[in-house]
Design a protein that fits this description.
The protein is α+β, with helices and mostly antiparallel strands and about 450 residues long. The chain has two domains: about 325 residues, DD-peptidase/beta-lactamase superfamily (Beta-lactamase, 3-Layer(aba) Sandwich), CATH 3.40.710.10; about 80 residues, no CATH class. The chain is about 25% helix and about 20% strand. It has an eight-stranded antiparallel beta sheet with strand order 2-1-12-11-10-9-8-7, sandwiched between helices. The N and C termini lie far apart (about 70 Å).
Length: about 450
């Protein structure tokens, strides 16, 4: 099960084998997805008497949250809710009704990390209605919107929101709208054979302890699901852009936009709408990690490069933080992606005439023509604000990124109007409508 060369596969397997042996993992699987297809799979250790395969189930833990988030975003795209809606609009009577859906999705609602129950990951869950009844002001640990604070409880609430608006359980809604369309038929709420048993590995001896597994009930949307490397590879392809109509590419891109950062020693990790984000080694990754007693899993997609990587393991703790990025490094070293061939493309003559040098006051900028009548405005030399723009039906261009994201660009033969800023062919061209007027240049 590989689309990479034998030397690459050997190097990838060696890295996986080192991880399994040195971190003392009962069983460990990993996979790489390239251009939406499973390119490499590896498994080490034992599940029962056999090596793990791409069909072996492991618990996903919090990767469940990213799937629930997709189902919530489908509701938004259908017009059933707005991300700015207070929870009260859809779950009336809750004492947390002032929190918004966007805050819950991005872990910026200020909610406590864990529910007001016994350790929910190791005990049977309580119904969602009972859980909601227990949530009150005491579970707010920060002012809503103030900061990123990861909350398992927040996704339990979002699961109930999904259930109420769909008129079914969160799990059935997720199955119908997300899992089945992506052909993730081996992703289930409870384990099915063949599945790994969750273990804790003793820190000072080579012995293991079986961890308990229960139906989390109301907390299920925070970490209930089980899956296989094969299914998780399909999810990785989805995160990379192979959405198969489940979600629009624009909405998936919105989910990958940073909404908060994990304020540690360095800002290398953050959160979008239901997706964890990371910047490491020049890579921009989006996905989610998962942790439940006896299980660890993580999936990262790098959409700009068209690949993704994942691992699944049956251990409570102990894996290194660099396994997945090491696997990507090996892939890059052995089989770097070739750039797409450059080919000439037709250009709108009117837009072509506007390309080239423009000036924001004295600062030079270059306007370039992109595919499908898109535009790029970038500073010449150091400093300045760069953005890309896409055409709109009303004859304007909409900013995609950078400082001008969401802002309007209007084109005229002698000037560009970018949200009131006037760009001219010559620095402060007196013939263009520069606000404040233009006097002569002088020594």
């Amino acid at each position: 099960m590989t689309q990479v060369g034998q030397p690459t596969a050997r190097a990838l397997m060696r890295r996986l084998a080192v991880e399994q042996a040195e971190c003392r993992v009962p069983s460990l699987t990993a996979a790489i997805v390239r251009d939406g297809r499973l390119a490499w799979f590896g498994g080490r250790g034992r599940v029962g008497d056999a090596a793990p395969t791409a069909a072996t189930q492991y618990r996903l833990g919090s990767i469940t949250k990213s799937m629930v988030a997709v189902a919530v975003m489908r509701l938004r795209d259908e017009g059933a809710l707005d991300l700015a809606d207070p929870l009260e609009h859809h779950l009336p009577g809750t004492r947390l009704g002032h929190l918004t859906i966007a805050q819950l999705l991005s872990h910026t609602a200020g909610l406590t990390a864990e529910p007001p129950t016994a350790w929910w990951e190791r005990t049977p869950g309580i119904p969602a209605a009972d859980l909601l009844a227990r949530l009150g002001p005491a579970e707010l640990k920060h002012r809503p919107g103030r900061r990123f604070h990861y909350s398992n409880v927040g996704f339990a609430v979002l699961g109930e929101l999904l259930a109420r608006l769909r008129g079914t359980t969160w799990l059935k809604a997720l199955r119908t709208e997300v899992l089945d369309p992506l052909e993730m038929h081996d992703t289930t709420a409870r384990p099915r054979p063949p599945h790994a048993t969750g273990y804790a590995v003793h820190p000072w001896a080579d012995v293991v302890l079986a961890e308990p597994e229960h139906d989390a009930d109301g907390m299920g949307p925070a970490g209930q699901l089980w899956s296989t490397p094969h299914d998780l590879a399909r999810w990785a392809a989805f995160l990379g852009g192979e959405t198969c109509g489940v979600l629009s590419p624009a909405t998936l891109a919105e989910m990958r936009e940073p909404a908060g950062v994990d304020d540690g020693a360095a800002w290398t990790a953050g959160f979008g709408l239901g997706l964890q984000l990371a910047r490491t080694g020049g890579r921009r990754l989006a996905g989610h990690s998962g942790s439940m007693p006896g299980f660890l899993a993580t999936v990262w997609a790098e959409p700009s490069e068209g690949h993704a990587v994942l691992f699944m393991a049956n251990t409570t703790s102990g894996l290194s933080a660099t396994l997945l990025t090491d696997l990507l490094d090996i892939l890059e070293e052995h089989e770097p992606r070739l750039p797409d061939e450059w080919r000439p493309a037709p250009a709108d003559p009117a837009l072509l005439a506007l390309t080239g040098l423009w000036h924001w006051g004295p600062k030079p900028y270059a306007l370039r023509l992109l595919p499908e009548r898109g535009l790029s405005l970038e500073p010449v030399g150091a400093g300045g604000r760069a953005s890309r723009f896409v055409p709109q039906d009303n004859g304007t261009w909409l900013g995609l990124d950078g400082y001008y994201a969401g802002e309007t660009l209007r084109l005229a033969p002698d000037h560009l109007d970018l949200n009131t800023f006037i760009f001219t062919r010559e620095p402060y061209d007196p013939g263009a409508p520069v606000p404040g007027g233009v006097s002569d240049w002088h020594a």
